[in-house]
Amino acid sequence: MSVFETVAVIGGGAWGTALAQASAMAGRATTLVVRTPEQADRINAARTNEAALPGQALLPNVTATSDPSEADVVVLAVPAQATRTLLSGFDPQLLAGRPVVLSAKGLETGTLARQSEILADMAPDAIGFVLSGPSFAADVAAGRPTAVTLAGDDANLTSDLAAALAGPSFRPYAADDRVGVEIAGALKNVYALACGAVDGAQLGASARAALIARGYAEMARMVTAMGGSAHTLTGLAGLGDLTLTCTSVQSRNYQFGMALGAGRRTEDILGSGAKLAEGVATAPVAAALARSLGVDAPLIDAVDAVVAGKADIATVVAGLMSRPLKREA
Ligand SMILES: NC(=O)C1=CN([C@@H]2O[C@H](COP(=O)(O)OP(=O)(O)OC[C@H]3O[C@@H](n4cnc5c(N)ncnc54)[C@H](OP(=O)(O)O)[C@@H]3O)[C@@H](O)[C@H]2O)C=CC1
Ligand SMILES: O=C(CO)COP(=O)(O)O
């Protein structure tokens, strides 16, 4: 019997619902912690979270609740900018000594913090893990094959946790580079905005592929400057998620980028009820982080400028194409 029998997934959106379903498929007794008792009642009665993943039936061992109670494993699945607020409402004792899996992909506005750093601030006695990789919520919840990276500091514990969360269609690979995994997960959303914009502006598939390759190189500079390993980027959280998000219209970041590429402004897209696109908040944070680290990050800067409405696509593309020529390495 696993020491990780019960799992609480906090966050009743698409990803929280999908991870609760994955945990249930792995055989864990799983609670999906949502904001209100009414939401929990609705989900339990309908056996689906219609607001988050319409039409997806939930397994019997997923129970929705609005009242977080003790579990062997806690998974946080709220937007990156909400993690600190969420944790500030928690009794730190509930998380002390427990594995807490961070699944949001983004950097915090103001502090430039990774999710692990927020957890260390707010619940220093929790044992932090990060989960990231190419995995659309709808695919995971429906039981379509998915593989992700689960990174933690203790190799044995990480492998045990990966085994506890693994199911027939959900395959976590254990890893130890939390910094690399978190930076990759946050930055791929920024590059997905750029790729969507390239397609929205009809700049061609060649431009998009070049952007993915140069984004990967930029990501490697960021990861190594932060003490992570560039090797992490060859895996699911790096190449895997970058490929998925930068080439799929299913990605919300890519969709947001397409709207930017078509000439719409950020406020206009947000005002018309766009879905969560984490790259919008992360772009300026990543740009500030790159500056503070002395990392050359022209693509992040370009996305930041377009998202902030300081430059249009044609201007940033002209700027990128006229940079001094350099060797590729
Ligand atoms: N969807 C996907 O395919 C994937 C998403 N992710 C990542 O998961 C994270 C969450 O995304 P996703 O679930 O898709 O987003 P959604 O917009 O679908 O859901 C976000 C959920 O978080 C809830 N929430 C927001 N703030 C708080 C808070 N302070 N306390 C409690 N609940 C809160 C929202 O509640 P309310 O609606 O009431 O505000 C909503 O239920 C993001 O970082 C995303 O990058 C990672 C992999 C795949
Ligand atoms: O992270 C994701 C897939 O791995 C989801 O991407 P979007 O948030 O852009 O939809």
Summarize the structure.
With 329 residues, the protein is α/β, with parallel strands linked by helices. The protein has helices at 14-25, 37-46, 83-88, 92-95, 115-122, 137-142, 155-165, 178-200, 205-225, 236-247, 252-261, 266-271, 278-293, 298-307, 313-321; strands spanning 6-10, 29-33, 62-65, 73-76, 99-102, 127-132, 146-152, 170-175.
Strand neighbour order, sheet with most strands: 3-2-1-4-5-6-7-8
CATH architecture of the largest domain: 3-Layer(aba) Sandwich
Share in helix: 40-55%
Give the class-level CATH name of the largest domain: Alpha Beta
**Element pattern in H and E:** EHEHEEHHEHEHEHEHHHHHHHH
Number of domains: 2
Radius of gyration, in angstroms, nearest whole number: 19 Å
Biggest β-sheet strands, sense, barrel: 8 strands, mixed
Q: What do we call the CATH topology of the largest domain?
A: Rossmann fold
Counted by DSSP, the helix tally is: 15
Low-confidence stretches: none
